[in-house]
C-alpha cells in the first residue's frame, strides 16, 4: 500500500487481516432504530444483565474507601489466588496450588498470556469451528497459525479424540477447547476430554481449556478439566458466572513448570490486573455471593427452557443441546438461506438482535444464529412472539 | 529440555529467556527485614505514594453506586476519549481527534497494542539503553528483535537524530523513546525529537513515544510529541501524573490510518479496559482534580530538589539533569564497583531500597542506581542521613 496511506510503515499482518465483527454493524443499526423510538430486544449480547452482586459491590466500596489503589504483584493478590484455589477445592473437590494461579485482566488476559507462553513462530493450533472468535487472534498474535477443527452438531459441536488425532500435524502445538462453549452453549463430556488429552499428551502438546462459563450449567453439575490432571492450561474469568464483565478480571491455571515464565511475561506485559477488581473479587466466593450467583443461574435456566422450546417451536433447528453458558445456537436454514441477512431482517422487522454465525467461524456460518438469553423471560417471550409473526 | 519437565511442550522463547527483575529479590529481602522490625525506606518503587484524588474517588463511587459495570466499546467510553482530546487541547494547545485515541489497560496495554500493530516477525526496533525494561518484551512478544541505542549522559540519556540514523538497519521497523524517561527522569528536547522524527519518516518507520510521565516535569512546561505531527504512536497513562496505577488505565494516540486495525486488535485481545477505571478517570480532568495533581507535582518537585542535592553531596554522580518523572539515576562508581551489590549493602546496612541499573539495560549497568522520590521529604532526608553514615 502507498506510503501516503501508512505514514509510519505498514500495519502488521496480524492486525490488517481481521474481519470486523458482523454483530457490530447490527448493533449500530440497533442503536439507530432505538433512537427512532423502536423497542429493541437485545439477544446478541454475551454479557449477563444482572447488577453487581451486593457483597462484591460492598467489598469494592470498602476497598475504595481506604483510598489506596496500588499495583499488586503480577500474579495477583495472594489472598485472591488462595480464594480461587479454595473455590476449586470446595466446589469441585480439586486441589490446585495457589502458586499455579495467575490473576489476569479477564479470560482475555489469560488467553493472551497462555498463547504468548506457548506459541513459537510457525506453530499451529487446533481450534474448533464454530468457536470464540478471539482465539484465532491470540494464536496469530504470536506468529501461530490456526487449523480449524470441523466439529459436528451430533458431537455437541466439540472436538473428539479422533478429530484431534486426525488433524494433528508436525508443527501442531496444541488445542484450544471451551466448555461450556461460545457460541453453542455445549459442554464437552468428561470422557471425551480425557480421550483428547491422551492424544495431546502422546504428542507432547498443550491443551488450553477455556472454562469461562464454568458454573453456568443447567441440569448438570459444573466441572473442571483440572480434575483430569495438572498439565493443562485452564482459563477462567469473573465475567460470566460472577457477573463482573466490565471489571476485567480472570485467571489462568498453568502447569507448575510454566508458572514462573508466565509470571514474568505478565510482569512485563501488564504489571498487574485491576487492583479494584481484585479486591472486589475477594468477596465473590463468600456464601452470600455464591447464593446470589446460584439464584441467577436458576434464572438463566428458566430463560433457557423458554427460549429453547420457543425457537424449536418456530422451526429453528437446535441439534446440540445447549447445557451451559447463556447461548442457543440455532439453525435458521428452514427460514432463510443466509443467517446474516436474516439477522438484519429480524432486527429491522421485529427489533430482535441476534449474532450471525459468520462471527464464529467459516464452516456453514450462514446456517446459524446465536441467541443469548441475557434478557429476562418476559422479553424472551416477546421476542419469540414477534418472530412468530414474522415467520 | 526433557519432556518430563515440560509436560505440555516447550515454553516459547519469548517467555523463557526473560531475566527476573533484580529489584524483586531486593524487595523480598526488604520485606524480610521489615518483618524483623527494621525501618525500610522505599525508594525503589515506581509508583506515586498519594491516595486516590477525591474527585476521582467520588466519580468511581458514584458509578459503582449505580450498580452496573458492563463492557465498554473496545476503544473506550466515547466521553473519556473526548475528555482526553479536550485535555490535549486545553493543556498543550494540540488538536487530537478523539477517534485517534484508544483507551487501554495502562500504558502497558497501549505499548502492547502498538507493538502488535506494527511488528512483523523479524522486524527490528531501536530501544534506548537504559530504558523501561518491559519495552524489550513487547517487541519480542510479536517476533521483533531489539537493537539497543547507546544513549549518553551528556545527551540526557536520550537518542539523537545521528544515533538513530546510525543504528537504522534494513529491517528496522522503528524507534521507541520515552520523555520523561524511566529510569533517568530526563526529557528529550523538542528539536532533538523533531530531528529524530525526520530520520524515522525518511525511512518510513514508526516512532513510539511514551509520555506516561507527562505532567511530571519540574521547571519545564509539560509537552507532547503530538505537537510535532500526527504520524507518531503516543503512549500515555493515568498511572503516574493522575496517580491511578492499580486501576490499569492508559491510552494510545495512533495515526488515523492505523486506528481501525488497532481497534480490532483491542476488541479481540482485551474486549475493553476496566469500566470502573474509565468512569473514575472521567473526573481526572476536572479543575479540582487537576489542582490536586499540580499540588502533588509541586511536592514531587521539592522532593527532587532535596534528593538531587543530597545525592550529589554524598558523591553520587548525576550527570544528566533529571527534569521529570520521579527518578534520579545516580552513578555510584565513586563508592562501589557494582551497583547491584551496593544496593544490597544499602538495604542491609541502612534500610534504604533502590533499584540497580541492571534492571534497565546492559550498558554499564553496574554504575547506576535508580532512586525514586515516591516518598516524602522527611523520609528522603532520613535516607540521605543514613547513607551519609554508611559512606
Ligand atoms: C469463550 C470465551 N472466552 C473468553 C472470553 C473473554 O471474556 P473476559 O475477558 O471478559 O473474561 C469470552 C467472552 O465472551 C468468551 O465467550
Ligand atoms: C516508561 C514507562 N512506560 C510504561 C509503564 C507502564 O505503566 P502503566 O501500565 O501502569 O501505565 C511504566 C511503569 O512504570 C513506565 O515507567
TrEMBL record, chains A, B:
Residues 39-386 form the Aminotransferase class I/classII large domain. Pfam families: Aminotran_1_2 (PF00155). It is an enzyme of class 2 (transferase). GO terms for biological process: amino acid metabolic process. The keyword Transferase applies. Its EC number is 2.6.1.-. Keywords: Aminotransferase, Pyridoxal phosphate, Transferase. Its cofactor is pyridoxal 5'-phosphate. GO terms for molecular function: pyridoxal phosphate binding; transaminase activity. Belongs to the class-I pyridoxal-phosphate-dependent aminotransferase family. This is Aminotransferase.
